[in-house]
Design goal:
By secondary structure, this protein is α/β, with parallel strands linked by helices. The chain has two domains: about 150 residues, 2-Layer Sandwich (Nucleotidyltransferase, domain 5), CATH 3.30.420.40; about 170 residues, 2-Layer Sandwich (Nucleotidyltransferase, domain 5). It has nine helices and eleven strands. The strands form two sheets. The protein has a six-stranded mixed β-sheet with strand order 10-9-6-7-8-11. Strands 3-2-1-4-5 form a five-stranded mixed β-sheet, sandwiched between helices. The protein is globular and about 65 Å long. The two termini are about 25 Å apart.
Length: about 325
């Protein structure tokens, strides 16, 4: 079996062809660099660029995988959450291809897709998962691949959004997470003590708006370098993410800790989780760097997981986009 997956939830156009075991036969991602000059993603520009880029990406991925469109058995695409205009491009293409060829189509939840990047790893259950990106910061209890139970989320900004806004405040450009991570390597994380909103590790919820305000006040007061402020900010955010996740992992006697999303590329976050999991004898799963950001492999693996649970799983052609997810139980399939 071969599955073609499409991801267009924000500003990355991504396509992949996977086999039935979740292996990527070919994958490509096209990142829209134009948004850096705007200080953030412009939705209309993003959707128009997806329309321009996606057909070429699909042709190239099919060629790289040695697969013709007729040989694709299942089509999958992200339905949400994300930018409506961007989501419509990928979702519409995948639905149209499935209908035209008489093949099944699956609309996939973007949040579940990020976590399913680990679907074919040797994860032992029960597990605890942290999804941390530009739009989301969530902790889940994971008894099995069929259940992702939300424990807590952010009350305001997501961690990735806080990184981007802090970088913009210091005039570092967009996206800011990678820039702050690199600057922090040459800074002193103990130069100042920043507040840790909702810092009680027993509370599986987050708040980053107050931290962002504190950073602004420190920066406007002067007398601190970009490197030192980046290091202090990075440490504060990572301490919050790691302490809360590891507390839940201990409380729930987790055997594995899963981390996914764009912020999982942060070097301090990765090393901190590695240290804490080794200390507790828990297995840690973080994505390869190329799969920390939005990609189509994660969409394909989420679709395959849904099919393994129910071989007849599919989405109706009426499946539509949704900008936000509200719920307690996260499922790969969007009906």
């Amino acid at each position: 079996m071969r599955l073609l997956a499409v991801e267009t939830s924000c500003d990355d156009s991504a396509v992949a062809v996977l086999d039935q075991d979740g292996n990527s036969l070919a994958e490509l991602v096209s990142t829209q660099v134009v948004h850096s000059s705007h200080g953030g993603v412009v939705p209309e520009i993003a959707s128009r660029l997806h329309m321009t880029v996606l057909p070429r990406l699909i042709r190239e991925v099919l060629d790289l995988s040695g697969t013709s469109l007729d040989e694709i058995d299942v089509f999958a695409a992200t339905a949400g959450p994300g930018l409506t205009g961007s989501l419509l491009v990928g979702l519409s293409w995948a639905k149209a291809a499935a209908v035209a060829l008489g093949k099944p189509f699956l609309g996939i939840n973007h949040l579940a897709a990020h976590l399913h990047i680990h679907r074919y790893s040797a994860v032992e259950f029960p597990a605890v998962a942290l999804l941390v990106s530009g739009g989301h910061t969530m902790i889940f209890r994971v008894p099995s691949w069929n259940q992702f139970i939300l424990l807590g989320t952010t009350r305001d900004d997501a961690a990735g959004e806080a990184f981007d806004k802090t970088a913009k405040l210091m005039g570092l450009g967009y996206p800011g997470g990678k820039i702050i991570d690199e600057l922090a390597e040459n800074g002193n994380p103990l130069e100042i003590v920043l507040p840790s909103p909702m810092g009680n590790k027993r509370t599986p919820e987050f708040s980053f708006s107050g931290l962002k305000t504190a950073v602004r006040l420190v920066w406007e007061a002067g007398n601190i370098s970009q490197e030192n402020l980046s290091a202090c900010f990075r440490k504060t955010v990572c301490d919050l993410l790691v302490s809360k996740t590891m507390y839940q992992a201990g409380k729930l006697s987790a055997k594995s800790v899963l981390v996914a999303g764009g912020v999982s590329a942060n070097s301090l976050l990765r090393s901190s989780f590695d240290f804490e999991c080794r200390k507790r004898g828990m297995a840690l799963f973080v994505p390869p760097m190329k799969h920390t950001m939005d990609n189509a492999v994660m969409v394909g693996r989420a679709a395959l997981s849904a099919l393994e649970n129910d071989p007849l799983a599919h989405s109706e052609s009426s499946c539509n986009t949704f900008p936000r997810w509200h719920g307690e139980i996260l499922s790969p399939l969007s009906y």
